[in-house]
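Lab meeting, item 3. Inverse folding demo.
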């Protein structure tokens, strides 16, 4: 008999943008990382948002710095709304819900979990 095991995403920490590539370099040197998932900013009509140029520049730099780990994009629409809703349902106070770093971390977890679920990452025991 085999059971299905589902991967669950969780957050690490929030890192300032200027320190992110170095953080990922250090992290991937210590941990087994198969893939990096990056939120893809899109407009409601499915076109890239204006922020996409910044994300593309970041991904290009990341791929040059850590070339052995593939990077994929995943739609990030509504993740901030979903993060705020999760914090509200979790009973976090208004001041805590306004912390951008916490919203970003929860949004990142939502993006990663959605990516994993879209690929049906399951393992047999």
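The presenter then showed the designed sequence:
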């Amino acid at each position: 008999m085999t059971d299905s095991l589902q991967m669950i995403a969780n957050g690490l920490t929030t890192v300032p943008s200027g320190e992110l590539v170095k953080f990922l370099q250090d992290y991937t040197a210590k941990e087994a990382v198969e893939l990096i998932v990056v939120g893809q900013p899109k407009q409601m009509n499915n076109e890239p948002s204006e922020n996409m140029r910044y994300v593309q520049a970041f991904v290009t730099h990341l791929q040059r710095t850590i070339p052995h780990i593939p990077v994929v994009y995943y739609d990030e629409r509504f993740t901030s709304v979903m993060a705020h809703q999760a914090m509200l349902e979790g009973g976090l106070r208004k001041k805590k819900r306004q912390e951008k770093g916490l919203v970003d971390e929860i949004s990142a977890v939502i993006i990663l979990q959605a990516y994993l679920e879209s690929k049906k990452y399951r393992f047999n025991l």
